Fold:
Amino acid sequence: MFTLLLAVAAAAPQPKAPPKEPSLLVGEWVSESATVEGKPRPEFDVPGLRFTADGKGFVNAGTTKKKDERPLKFDPTKTPPEIDVLSFRGIYAVEKDVLTLCLAVDGPRPESFEPKPGNGKSVLIWTLKRAK
Structure:
């Protein structure tokens, strides 16, 4: 009897996991500002990023006048979440409609958004806003 109950329980349909919430990243993001070591970098002319619902990300490596999308890598399961944009390794945070990236200009991937002064490693803080 016990074996029969186990067989019936195993054959019963398992409840479906709730659908995953859409990623906070999905959509178009436009560049708002960029700084290196706290100094504005207006020459940083990368228009923005795009993330799709199927988990892919793209950076427009062109300029605001010319589109040149290239894939990027990101891993939201890491703490903090990691992102690789072109040759830069970094981390990111999303708060409402603001995406902030902290990218290593040289050296290893940053571990926080507060770079340690005097460690000889420069980071680019790139702020983007969700496109309307």
About this structure: The chain has a mean pLDDT of 78. DSSP finds one helix and nine strands in the chain. Residues 23-130 form a domain with the Lipocalin fold (CATH 2.40.128).
